[in-house]
TrEMBL record:
Regulation of catalytic or functional activity: Allosterically activated by GTP. Inhibited by UTP.
Organism the protein comes from: Phyllobacterium leguminum
Database matches in Pfam families: AA_kinase
Span of domain Aspartate/glutamate/uridylate kinase: 8-216
Family note: Belongs to the UMP kinase family.
Lineage: Bacteria, Pseudomonadati, Pseudomonadota, Alphaproteobacteria, Hyphomicrobiales
GO MF entries: ATP binding; UMP kinase activity
Record's catalysed reaction(s): UMP + ATP = UDP + ADP
Pathway(s) it belongs to: Pyrimidine metabolism; CTP biosynthesis via de novo pathway; UDP from UMP (UMPK route): step 1/1
Function: Catalyzes the reversible phosphorylation of UMP to UDP.
Protein's recorded name: Uridylate kinase
Domain of life: Bacteria
Length: 240
């Protein structure tokens, strides 16, 4: 394995759902601690890391809409869930002495700083882990889209999606256990074939900005660093 990471600055989209561990809801601190350790390993390789965390372990806006409630309010609740997860990750990182800051797309100055592209980039240049909370700050989006947006804004070399599965398959492997895993795909193939591991807005944004997407299992200890070193199990999505 080479000692030099293949990317200098990355954006990690960490699964919200993964944070609940076996509990079925909420935050399992041991899982957050493990993800923090993975980020620390990447930092130790000299990689600059920005993070967006989902909110699926707490709340998704569609849950309100599907019961006849107001979608926008539901999405506000979902974005607040991502703030809770971001604060949990900052806590886990600070326990292992990794300097991290939470920047929220929704102003809540008593709790964390507000997002601005300039401040985010300045913090990353200083070597801090920047955790982008509150999604895009707009309803009808997802944290996948927020991750692609922030990746473009900070000039990330790659967008990592740490999720429940170890790559992109020909169909959802949770529903079709015989689906085939891809090593490499283009953004166009992901969009044309409707491979639903990431939402289409996020993939389109990454494609327009020439940002590779790496999909891997966030449940595998040390996989993030391995992939950064050019090894590890994942699917890489890049330009055609
Ligand atoms: N073609 C595919 N290849 C791989 N996974 C797929 C595919 N189609 C659907 N999926 C599903 O997509 C899921 C990832 O989607 P999703 O973004 O909702 O989860 P997440 O990473 O846990 O995000 P969140 O942060 O919102 O909780 C995988 O767990 C997998 O079951
Ligand atoms: O830009 C955004 C990002 C997220 N939301 C809402 O938050 C939840 C949780 O995010 P996931 O990506 O599903 O983990 C999402 O379901 C939306 O309700 C948003 O409105 N805008």
């Amino acid at each position: 394995m080479s000692d030099a990471p293949i990317y200098k600055r990355v954006l990690l989209k960490a699964s919200g759902e993964a944070l609940m561990g076996d509990q079925g809801f909420g935050i399992d601190v041991s899982v957050v601690d493990r993800i923090a350790a993975d980020i620390a390993e990447a930092k130790a390789l000299g990689v600059e890391v920005g993070v967006v965390i989902g909110g699926g372990n707490i709340f998704r806006g569609v849950a309100v809409a599907s019961k006849g409630g107001d979608r926008v309010t539901g999405d506000h609740m979902g974005m607040l869930a991502t703030v809770i997860n971001s604060l949990a990750l900052r806590t886990s990182l600070s326990k292992i002495s990794v300097d991290a800051v939470v920047l929220s797309a929704i102003a809540m100055p008593e709790i964390c700083e507000s997002f601005s592209q300039r401040q985010a980039t300045a913090y990353m240049d200083q070597g801090k882990v920047v955790i982008f909370a509150g999604g895009t700050g707009n309803p009808f989006f997802t944290t996948d889209s927020a991750a692609a947006l922030r990746a473009a804004e900070i000039g990330a070399d790659a967008l990592f999606k740490g999720t429940q599965v170890d790559g992109i398959y020909s169909a959802d492997p949770k529903i079709h256990p015989d689906a085939m895993r891809y090593e490499r795909l283009t953004h166009k193939q992901v969009l044309d074939q409707g491979l639903a591991v990431m939402d289409t807005t996020a993939v389109a944004l990454a494609r327009e900005n020439n940002i590779p997407i790496i999909v891997y299992s966030i449940h595998e200890d040390g996989e993030f660093a391995k992939i950064l070193l050019g090894k590890g199990r994942c699917t890489t999505v890049s330009g055609e």
